[in-house]
Amino acid sequence: MDVSVFRGSLEMSMSALRSALRAAFAASLSLLLLKLPAYAQLTRLAVERTEPLGHDGYERLTGHAYGELDPHHPLNAIITDLELAPRNARGMVEYAATFTILKPADMTRASGVLLYFVPNRGRIDLTRDAFVVDARARGHVLVASGWQGDLDPAAGTETLSVPVAKNSDGSSITGPVLARFSDMAPGTKTLPILRGGVAGTADPANLDTHEATLTRRASESGPVVPLRSSDWAFADCGQTAFPGRPDPRKVCVKDGFDPAYLYELVYTAKDPEVLGIGFAATRDLISHLRYGAQTSGAATNPIASSITSTVSFGNSQSGTYLRAFIRLGFNQDLAGRIVFDGSNPNIAARLLAMNIRFAAPSGGAQMYDAGIEGVVWWSSYEDQARGHPAASILDRCTATGTCPKVVETFGSAEFFNQRASPTLVGTSADRDIPLPPNVRRYVFPGVRHGGGPGGFDADPELDDCCGLPSNPNSSNESLRALRAALVDWVVSGTLPPPSQYPRLDRGELVSPTRAAMGFPAIPGVPLPDGILNPLYDYDFGSEFDYRDVSGVITLQPPVVRRVLPTLVMKVDADGNEVAGVASVLHQVPLGTYTGWNTVPSGFFEGGILTNAGSFIPFARSRADRLAAGDPRPSLEERYGTHERYVALVRAAAERLVRGRYLLQDDADRLIAEALASDVLK
Question: Global pTM?
Answer without folding.
Answer: 0.93
